[in-house]
Amino acid sequence: MKKLDRKLKVGILGGTGMVGQRFITLLENHPWFEVTTIAASSHSAGKTYEESMAGRWKLQTPMPEAVKKIVVQDVSDVENVAKDVDFVFSAVNMSKDEIRAIEEEYAKTETPVVSNNSAHRWTKDVPMVVPEINDDHYAVIPAQKKRLGTEKGFIAVKPNCSIQCYVPALYAWKEFEPTKVVVSTYQAISGAGKNFQDWPEMVGNIIPYIGGEEEKSEKEPLKIFGRVENGEIVNAEGPLITSQCIRVPVLEGHTATIFVDFAKKPTKEELIDRLVNFRGFPQEADLPSAPKQFIQYLTEDDRPQVTQDVYYENGFGVSFGRLREDTIFDWKLVGLAHNTVRGAAGGAVLSAEALVEKGYITYK
Q: Phi/psi class of residue 160: alpha, beta or left (left: φ > 0; alpha: ψ in -120 to 50)?
């Protein structure tokens, strides 16, 4: 783990939304990062963070004292927001075109942007990283800097929240060559930035549609499994993935049912072994937020469960269970990941730690 002389100064773009709130709670007492700037829409600008969040704090974790008196800035005032920070996390709520533009504006002020947004996930020179899986994709950053005309500024993104509850298993099993995958995700309402107070019609309800989610679930893993070539990320050709994504009355935690065919035929013991012994760059580098054991396998028939397992490794770990042979596919199992920790803000924090460790994020 890298030793820093002092904490890096961090800005949160979109700090008043649910993901922004999660960033702020995760960064409380962080050993490397200190939130010094919060930016949001012009509606919140000029107020203290505590004032701007009156009646809008959605998390069960209380608002950290250290941020309450920070005066919120207008996120569109890029030069002023960027001048006093070393890098920013982005969770802005805008159209995709607006997000693409403003994240590039921040990068061009020589401010690295670690984004939770989907706008740049398909930009070919922007790494979309699960740090345990494809940290080698950060190698595309020099090509992006050349395009942007920057020395320090760049954009890195994290993938969709729901793929965290099945892609880690597929990657841990890459030696057995997964060929076809059928996945259904059962997604918590916090993935839509809401709680039950905001969305009372979700109580006791299921909605069998989440806009854009199935395309992300099927395509994003192929970028993650891809390779860097000539300054761009080239998608992997497989596995072939088909998905259904369903909103369920759960506050936090995305669950997946996963069916997999393999080119090579592993045993159950081999599959479990690869899950529980999987380690990636965050574990090797002992990053501050890294789960000690990224993946756990639960042997009980009724696990993983949201109420018991969603905060495994403080929400940074992923849980699997119910691995068994299938009558049509080779194997099937159930996965669970915390959608706003591992799947959103926490995944971005871990990515920022990896970028610091690798020397891409430094003091201005």
A: beta
Domain with 176 in it: 162-338
Provide φ and ψ at 90, rounded to 5°: -115, 125
pLDDT digits (tens, 9 = 90+) for 103-138: 999 999 999 999 999 999 999 999 999 999 999 999
pLDDT reported for residue 79:
97
d(CA 343, CA 341): 5
Burial class (CB in 10 A: 0-12, 13-18, 19+), 209: exposed
88 and 225: one domain?
Answer: no
User: What is the 8-class DSSP label of residue 3?
Assistant: P
Kindly give the residue spans of alpha helices, DSSP state H, lying in 243-280. 268-276
Peptide bond into 304 cis (omega under 30): yes
**Residue 237, SS3?**
coil
Interatomic CA distance for residues 162 and 214, integer angstroms: 10
pTM assigned to the model: 0.97
User: Cα separation of 314 and 282, whole Å?
Assistant: 15
Cα 126 from Cα 120, distance rounded (Å):
7
CATH number at residue 319: 3.30.360.10
Q: Count structural domains, the chain.
A: 2
In what helix (H) or strand (E) does residue 130 lie, and over which residues does it extend? Answer: none
Could you tell me the two tokens for 56?
A: 């809008």
Q: Which two tokens stand for residue 359?
A: 């020397």
* Burial (Cβ within 10 Å: 0-12, 13-18, ≥19) of residue 173: buried
Q: Any idea which residues carry the catalytic annotation?
A: 161, 254
